[in-house]
Amino acid sequence: MNTSKQIVTPKEFLFAVEEDDKLPLDCGRTLRNVTLKYETYGQLDKDKRNAILILHALSGDAHVCGYHSPSDDKPGWWNEMVGPGKPIDTNKYFVICSNVIGGCSGSTGPRSINPETGKPYNLDFPVLTIADMVRAQQRLIEYLEIPELLAVVGGSMGGMQALQWSISYPEMVHSVAAIATTAQLSPQSIAFDWIGRSAIQYDHEFVNGNYDDEFPPEHGLSIARMLAHVTYLSDESMAKKFGRGLQNSNSYTYKFDRDFAVESYLRYQGQRFVERFDANSYLYITKAMDYFDLSALGNGSLTQAFAGARANYLVVSFTSDWLFTTKQSEEIVRALLNNSLEVSFCEIESSYGHDAFLLEIETLGRIVSDFLRNQLMEWRKDECK
Amino acid sequence: MNTSKQIVTPKEFLFAVEEDDKLPLDCGRTLRNVTLKYETYGQLDKDKRNAILILHALSGDAHVCGYHSPSDDKPGWWNEMVGPGKPIDTNKYFVICSNVIGGCSGSTGPRSINPETGKPYNLDFPVLTIADMVRAQQRLIEYLEIPELLAVVGGSMGGMQALQWSISYPEMVHSVAAIATTAQLSPQSIAFDWIGRSAIQYDHEFVNGNYDDEFPPEHGLSIARMLAHVTYLSDESMAKKFGRGLQNSNSYTYKFDRDFAVESYLRYQGQRFVERFDANSYLYITKAMDYFDLSALGNGSLTQAFAGARANYLVVSFTSDWLFTTKQSEEIVRALLNNSLEVSFCEIESSYGHDAFLLEIETLGRIVSDFLRNQLMEWRKDECK
User: Which residues of A touch B300 (CB under 8 A)?
Assistant: First the structure.
């Protein structure tokens, strides 16, 4: 047993319990009895200026780093990035990682019990937006009595939430690190999400979302995951990793099972995913991403959308990311600069595609760590003036 | 009724009828009673030097141009490119368009009757290669008593067949126009094909390929088609065509049906496709494309693969084609030049993605037309010497 492991205990925040305290949603409906799963690391300073909120991507969860027990051998999803002595140093910062509502990792989502009916919501669960996810997280930060976060940090869908935070709650966000993200999905990304959701909805076991826990729509969900997975890689990284290598032999099988290593890899990824992710949640979360469009908040102008924002920003993209491209990051940067906001922008050279935000930790870590240190230093300096 | 319509009658060529005449295949098996659907346009000159073989892409067929009857209002798939006075001028050239075996457009394929059992082959049909398709076409050209084709022309999978023709039957191919094609699929393309095939094979109605004609695996096939369709477009063309436009209203539906125009478009494309294409054929043809790897014919060297070729080549790529990229075309060009073969290479500026070979007819037509005229002129000049 490795005693040097950083052990963390997941927490749950239950809110919107009272009738007059329900969580309002963009669709016009409300949610009651909302649970948000979260984890915290490190200590909040007396001045409460060292709190960092980390937000996760589509299939992530509140477990950003460390282990859940001494025997746990699977660390959190950004363990190289966050922890004692890591780029987001939990010896220095109080780190909160919050799950999203709509998911399947401990927070209220479509498979939760609807308090009105006593049965799972399934497709009766309201269709959420990224702003709804952030609205729930704001309740958590309020509950933790943190008036202003040093930084809100996220990659991919986490970056969308981080940007949304700075617009929804400008007074609570000192800075934002938005990594491998976008202010709106391209039609190509919407198309891929649509195909993935269609595969789930077409699955014979889907039963309009009312599937049995024992018989989830595994095939549809694995199709959706395999497709999404290809968009997380790059043509270059796939060429390096698999090429046209064959799985089991030096010759073609002349059958319809797997021939190529890349086919085997994808099938494995699809199969693993269905063990840990819920099909209904997949529908809800991808739909929230498709709906996300910051420029709509500014009546079509992204610049206008950030008019009320006051945070300092770090925007990071990766050269081979074709899901959320450098061009999309640059649009964010332009809108921020148009509002005379402080922005650092960095495009990191990488062949890993969208997944680079999880893999290029050496470069990304240095950039994020510097950004956070400067934010904290300047903020405390301002205070002394 | 428009009497100026060019009317064409599809033809069928039945071969490999005798036991000792069976069509050998790369997988080691053979095919008997093979039908190849084809169409011809124009007249073969006395010197038999004006014959052009056109080969189609995945979902194409033998009907390259013209109409099947005076009341027919749907012309062939390359009608702007081929016909009287068109870039591939049927007043001048004798044009043959041959279907592929393995498909579902009139030639022998997985839904054909297996002469050994009297029942449809379905997944007992042998897994084919592009070289097998070409092997069948060679029988057709032999039957038509054409000793050498002026040109073999094809886009996408048709380009693969054209390249293969020049390697399999060098003495029968005077020139090749290989458009928007590749000498081998990238792992990313193999991945997309795998996901599409998986969607078909996972479909409840698939029944291991033994589906009823009345109940084909429509859902799986439409998923495969929608996915493939995205790879035929470009991010840019999708942005131009759809953007983030909504389908029916100015606001989100907060439901899981179509919100975005691109979703509606894709669903429509998927639905139309299942009406005209067979799921088993989709498996066979995509597998043939995945298996296609000319460099394997040269023991890993594409240059070596073309060592026996003697044709003149035109290679055309399109800037926004991310399925079969300019880089992949350049690899072909390099291999041809290494063999001191005559090559013209052209990258056409286009935002249409892979579909550009069907859409950029003005530019492509001029290039192909010039190439063919030069080939014919030089060939006849050689003869006069």
Answer: none
Q: How far is B261 from chain A (nearest CA, A)?
A: 9
Fold assignment, B190-286: Rna Polymerase Sigma Factor; Chain: A (1.10.1740)
pLDDT per residue over A194-217, tens digit each? 999 999 999 999 999 999 999 999
| Shortest Cα distance, chain B CAs vs residue A288, angstroms | 9
Pair A348, A357: CB distance under 8 Å: no
Chain B contacts of A127, Cβ < 8 Å? 252, 254-256
- To the question of pTM greater than 0.80 for the whole model, the response is yes
Where are chain A's structural domains? 11-184+294-384, 190-286
For residue B267, give how far its alpha carbon lies from the nearest alpha carbon of chain A (Å): 9
How does DSSP assign A360-375, residue by residue? -HHHHHHHHHHHHHHH
Q: In sequence order, what DSSP letters do the residues of A204-229 get, joined into one string?
A: TTTGGGT--TTS--HHHHHHHHHHHH
Q: What is the pLDDT of residues A151-176, one digit of tens each?
A: 999 999 999 999 999 999 999 999 99
Q: Could you report the per-residue pLDDT of B212-241, keeping only the tens digit for each?
A: 999 999 999 999 999 999 999 999 999 999
**Among chain A residues, CA nearest to B204:** A204
**ipTM attached to this prediction:** 0.96
Of the candidates A191, A197, A241, the beta carbon closest to that of B230 is on: A191
Tell me whether residues B266 and A191 touch, CB distance under 8 A.
Answer: yes
CATH ID of B11-184+294-384, from 3.40.50.1000, 3.40.50.10770, 3.40.50.720, 3.40.50.1820: 3.40.50.1820
User: How far is residue A296 CA from its own chain's centroid?
Assistant: 21
Nearest Cβ partner of A187 from B184, B204, B262? B262
Instruction: Show the beta-strand stretches assigned E in chain A.
Output: 11-15, 23-24, 30-31, 34-41, 51-55, 82-83, 88-89, 94-98, 151-155, 175-179, 312-318, 343-348
Residue from A59, A107, A156, A317 carrying the catalytic annotation: A156
